[in-house]
Amino acid sequence: MKGLISGQTTICGIIGDPIGHTMSPAMHNAAFKSLGLNYVYVPFKVKSMELRKAIEGIRGLNLRGVNVTIPHKVAVVQLLDKLDPLAERIGAVNTIVNDEGILTGYNTDATGFLQTLHDRNIEPAEKKVLLLGAGGAARAIGHILTREKARVTILNRKQDLSWAEDLAARLSRNYKTEVKALELTAENLKKAVNNAEILVNATSLGMSPEIDSTPVPAELLRADLTVFDVVYNPLQTRLLREAKAVGAQTIDGLEMLVRQGAVSFEIWTGVKPPVEVMREAALSLLQKNEK
Ligand code: NDP
User: Fold this and answer.
1) Ligand 1 centre and the CA of 187: distance in Å?
2) What is the dihedral angle through the alpha carbons of 53, 55, 56, 58, rounded to the nearest 10 degrees?
3) Which contiguous run of DSSP H or E holds residue 112?
4) Is residue 281 scored above 90 in pLDDT?
5) Ligand 1 centre distance from Cα of residue 35 (Å)
6) Does residue 148 sit in the same domain as residue 243?
7) pLDDT tens sequence across 215-244
8) Which of 204, 207, 211, 214 to mutate to test the pocket of ligand 1 (most atoms within 8 A of CB)?
9) What is the whole-number distance in angstroms between the Cα of residue 228 and the centre of ligand 1?
10) In terms of domains, do 128 and 48 share one?
11) Structural domain boundaries enclosing 99
12) Which of 54, 57, 64, 85 has CA 20 to 30 A from 121's CA?
């Protein structure tokens, strides 16, 4: 933001519930400030039953756009005027842009994940990827990996296996490939990790305050595995610490967080995002929270 908020200030924000721990205001406001853009980014706590009114409020208050987080990413899809093709396939939106009252939904979690792999010169095509989880993040990651022709296996807890099976069936159908979904048991996990080149944790296991939890026992990890943990709070999860200890390549959730934010920033402003500034802002907030 440049100077004080004024009648010329363009407003963006994030809707979710809970919203107290979001990193996004810090990242976006730092980015606006560094480029001298007269924009501001604010958090809005929106309960599920108020979602429709909140979306109408984007038009009514002439907000430029919002990010969408837990628990609204799927429910919001049907309230928008247009969807980007990738968001439509995923069936979840984390970014909305308001073009003179026309609301379009995007999924920048997926793009952010792929950009993070590309930044590290990892090309997912033909790679055997084990995806843990079938929630919001896993859904976006499963789509982008399958679109990029990775060979994906999904493991999820039994209680929600039908959700994982449904995701695998939709990925197989959409991208004309075979995606398997299995129950997250010790035996399936062992086989699947042994067979994988890239392991992606898209469950919330390991996230604060459960920082001693890990989805994969240390003895299954190997030096030739790439381990990507989408959890960013804490940055060094137990999974990543144990993967590093055996010499595996590790990727933490910060980069995906920054990349998804950077893509949203560009959608709203049309300006190339200051990725380094956004990374610094998110990192310093995370480090402050960890103290
Ligand atoms: P969801 O609640 O939609 O999904 C959570 C997933 O974790 C589900 O598959 C759930 O399984 C699984 N899970 C939870 N607890 C356990 C457990 N004890 N054992 C096994 N599986 C478990 O959350 P999201 O997908 O939105 O977020 C997941 C994580 O990813 C969070 O830590 C979030 O902060 C992070 N994230 C990071 C992003 C980034 O940019 N780096 C972007 C988005 C999310 P079940 O279905 O059986 O409950």
Assistant:
1) 21
2) 130
3) helix 108-119
4) yes
5) 34
6) yes
7) 999 999 999 999 999 999 999 999 999 999
8) 204
9) 14
10) no
11) 10-106
12) 85
Catalytic (active site) residue 73: yes
- Tell me which H or E stretch contains 199: strand 198-201
Q: Looking at ligand 1, which residue's alpha carbon is closest to its atom 1?
A: 135
Q: How far is the centre of ligand 1, averaged over its atoms, from the C-alpha of 85 (Å)?
A: 24
What is the per-residue pLDDT across 145-178, written as a single tens digit (0 to 9) for each?
999 999 999 999 876 678 888 889 989 998 888 8
Asked if residue 182 belongs to a domain, the reply is: yes
245 half-sphere exposure, CB direction, 13 A CA radius? 12
**What does pTM read for this prediction?**
0.93
Tell me the mean pLDDT in the region 118-144: 95
pLDDT of the residue at 160 = 67
* Residue listed under structure tokens 């100077």: 3
Query: What is the strand order of the sheet 82-83 is part of?
Result: 39-45, 10-16, 65-68, 95-99, 102-106, 82-83
Please give the order of strands across the beta sheet that includes 198-201: 180-183, 151-156, 128-132, 198-201, 226-229, 249-251
Q: Which of 2, 45, 73, 190 is flagged as catalytic?
A: 73
Query: Do 99 and 118 fall within a single domain?
Result: no
Atom of ligand 1 nearest to the CA of 206: 32
The response to whether residue 105 sits with its C-beta less than 6 Å from ligand 1 reads: no
Distance of alpha carbon 109 from alpha carbon 159, whole angstroms? 25
